[in-house]
Amino acid sequence: MKGKISLFIMKNIQKILSIREVKQLTKNSDFNVMGVVSRFTRRKDRNDNPFWEVTVSDPSGDIDGKVWQTSSWRNAQGGDDFPIDPDNCGLRFEGASVFIEGRKAEYRDQIQYNFNEVLYLDQNNYPPKMFSRHSPVKSEILEDMFVNLIAEISHKEIRDFVDSVFFKHGLWDKFKVWPAAVTIHHAYTNGLLEHSVSVAIGARDMARHYEDFKIPVNIDLVTAGALLHDIGKLEAYTVNILPQMTVNGCVVEHITLGYNMFMKFAEAEKLSPDIASALGHIIVSHHGKREYGSPVPPATPEAFIVSAADNIDFELSYWKNQIDALNSDTHFTDYLPVLDRRLWRGIELP
Q1: Which residues pair with 52 in a beta bridge?
Q2: Mean pLDDT, the chain, whole residue set
Q3: Given pLDDT bands bounded at 50, 70 and 90, which one contains residue 6?
Q4: DSSP-based three-state secondary structure for 216
């Protein structure tokens, strides 16, 4: 740790855990953790008493906690700490570095994290960016993979169009560092690049497989569509230390935003109408069903394949995040509404 350490931290420093380690604790365990606040919401209980729902993030993951009226709030700017009222202290907690002393409990058969002490850290000694998450794959590797995928496209008009979208129209510098989500999957720096590369490779290989089985699928359209499918997230999200939704991301959503961006590029590059329709259809249908946010469901082999690759990449990323948070001797997660199921660690063969 950097800088002058407050007396509060010194008193409670027996071990500061990563968020992943906290999630692997057994219930009724106490913990200390440091991270950046990604969500800070004041609420009231049934007796009209205030409490706070707070999400804290570090490079290993996120943790959602409850801060009850009986919890302690303290300010450690300058090294010395003193009590504060979170409603009237003039501090902005969202996006700030904090130290948490908490307890992993159980409520109604579900794990609950109670934050009993919240310490606002000196932001110069503990800058929020030190707790930001990045793709586990090196950015240089992901960038090379992305460029190579474009180079693999044999159809010149499609290849030149994709290359122009990312490199001529100035998306690349933003695209390569952007998150793919605020939570759930690839919600970190380089997440959009990682997700797009993974979907493109999976979709390309799936297309090759079905081509071998005489399904008339165009591999170039699949690869291009996969690389382009989430460009709307450049307008749906923003990054202020942590991923956040934009207004348009909330009320227009990334599929519509992405299709509008794509059509402007198609017009600017004079992309042939047939190719524009085929790639545009992949973008608007990649969530698979209307109830999942797609204006239309997939209707071509290329759209079916990109949608399937996008879904499996999301599911496997989510599975890994949830399984990594389990104790080593725990084999199932709690029920997860996102996927409407419990997840299983699976077996390890000798």
Answers
A1: 42, 67
A2: 91
A3: low
A4: coil
Residue 334 has pLDDT above 90, yes or no: no
CA distance 66 to 52: 6
Q: Is pLDDT of 2 > 60?
A: no
How long, in residues, is the chain? 350
Instruction: Please answer whether residues 128 and 95 qualify as being in contact, where contact means their C-beta atoms are separated by less than 8 angstroms.
Output: yes
Q: Coil, strand, or helix at residue 280?
A: helix
Which candidate, 128, 46, 120, places its Cα nearest to that of 95?
A: 128
C-alpha span between 99 and 97 (Å, rounded): 7
The DSSP bridge partners found for residue 175 are none
* Pairing relationship of beta strands 29-44 and 50-58 according to DSSP bridges: antiparallel
Q: Which of 30-34, 46-50, 140-144, 294-298 has the lowest mean pLDDT?
A: 46-50
CA–CA dist 184, 38 (Å, integer): 13
State the virtual CA torsion across 323, 328, 332, 337 in degrees, nearest 10.
-40
**Cβ atoms 126, 1 nearer than 8 A:** yes
Specify which residues 58 forms β-bridges with: 61
Instruction: Please give the backbone phi and psi of residue 175, each rounded to the nearest 5 degrees, phi first.
Output: -60, -40
How many degrees, rounded to 5, is the angle at CA 189 between CA 39 and CA 262?
100
The residue type found at 195 is H
C-alpha–C-alpha distance, residues 227 and 231, integer Å:
8
Q: What is the pLDDT of residues 219-232, one digit of tens each?
A: 999 999 999 999 99
CA distance 224 to 278: 10
Beta carbons of 151 and 223 less than 8 angstroms apart: no
User: Is the model's pTM score more than 0.70?
Assistant: yes
315: buried, middle or exposed (CB in 10 Å: 19+, 13-18, 0-12)? middle
CA distances from 227 to 72, 84, 205, 251 (A): 48, 48, 14, 24
